[in-house]
Amino acid sequence: MSTFYVLSKIYTQCFSNKSEYVKKHEIYYSDIVQFNCDPKVAYGIIDDICCMLRCTSLSLRVVSDTTGTVIGPFTFVCGDTPHECSSSAEKIPSCEFIADTRFNNCKASFILLAEKNTVFHDLAQENFHENAKCIMVSGQGYGDKSTKAFLKKLHRKLRIPVLAIVDCNPYGLQILFYYKYGSAKSAFDSVNLAVRDIKWLGLRPLDLEKYKIDVEGSEFEDHAISMAKNLLEQDFMKMDDNWVSKIEKMLQIGKSINIERLHTKGSQYLSMKFLAEKLESKDWI
Hints:
Strand order of the largest sheet: 6-3-9-8-10-11
Structural class: alpha/beta
Helix content: 40-55%
Largest sheet: 6 strands, mixed
Number of strands: 11
Number of helices: 14
């Protein structure tokens, strides 16, 4: 019945009423009880319909919700609309339109992926993207499909490195691996989403000692410890002792250290000291 409801909603809104597109969250909020008050149920049904009909969601005129933002010395063209990103952050387009998105006038030498939107905006306000000549991307945590597809295309087309800055805890590391290897749920589409060459710039366990960062904070909960141990069991992790040692050190510290902790050392410490030194010495893994 839920599948029939979604099909009916798509037909009514996009084909009968001749609307241009309908967003996934609009289908969900049209009757949340129908989806047990869980948007993932609605999104899963949409994916199932696409598999059943052997079509893309775009051909059904259903587009994804986007949360990602980008800023940097370049322009991207989506459809016929140019988006100049050098002076202000722009919303990342829906993944259904990224295949036709073009990049122009790029003057960046690398891409910086920021786990958190707060860190992204702090760096943007300090004009870090201009001073470091980089493109900054944020997916607000785990990142939606559109952000991952956009980052993948940026890396592939511009052929510049991707460096990530995440919290020094298992959650931050898992976010990094979702961008690097993809998630189990989207394994079928990882070729279009995963950026295998992404590098871990920080915040790493050894950074805490090097930059004398206060490690007083909340201790890892059982779920975080379990997540870290689960990462150690992954095949891709066992192939690199360097990664293993970092996670083991993280478990030894046992406390969650957020990127924002660097702000206690000065308002511009993150950009002018931490990132500047790491980029100059190419301190990433």
